[in-house]
Amino acid sequence: MDKVCVKNIYMNYHSLKGFTKALMNINFAVEEGEFLSIVGPSGCGKSTLLNIIAGLLKPSFGEIYIDNESLTSFSSKMGYMFQRDQLFEWITVWDNIMLGIKIQHKKVSDYTENINKLLRDYGLWDFRFHYPKELSGGMRQKVALIRTLAVNPEVLLLDEPFSALDYQTRLNISDEIFKIIKKEGKTAIMVTHDISEAISMSNRVIVLSSRPAQIRKIFNIEFSVPHESPLKSREEPEFRIYFNNIWKELNS
Length: 252
Prior knowledge:
- This is ABC transporter related protein.
- By secondary structure, the protein is of the alpha/beta class.
- It contains eight helices and ten strands.
């Protein structure tokens, strides 16, 4: 069953000098529970596309559907995880996680039990009253994810979520966050520059062209061993083949 449908999306930016074509005729669907990644050249419009899917930007033409309903603004069914953790340094981990619930004027007590479970399940319970500056970069990203999961979204949108981390932390935390997303049964759409990251975490990878971005190719990612850990997937023989094919597509 399709959870998200992207239909005939065009995006033009207008200025006094004319207009710039950013996206052209983007069409794809994401199945419920699927992890899909979007890669493409720098500046091609990947984040613009993600913002349109989120309902934060209105496209020049085309529509986004979630559960077969047309999206006209940001949907409570979606959660957005940004490039940086966006944690407020002057409040605790607990208060940072609660922030989204309070902003949406929801009743905190309705979500407390789920948040406590997330904190315990993913190793942050003992840090709930710490401040962000007391946490490692990887732990901060886990806090950001739990903050996103706190309001129980059905679809997660991830915009370069690990780009601010050093390489070793990036590998470890992407593995952890992948497992959290799968365990929580979420549908995920991720934008990344990292081909290896996209292959190791995704069921499919969409390759965009340079601006104006169009879909060049969609790769179905299948490993001979079940897709349970991004770190282990990088060791599979199919990994190098997918990497080379996506690299060629990006540079052709």
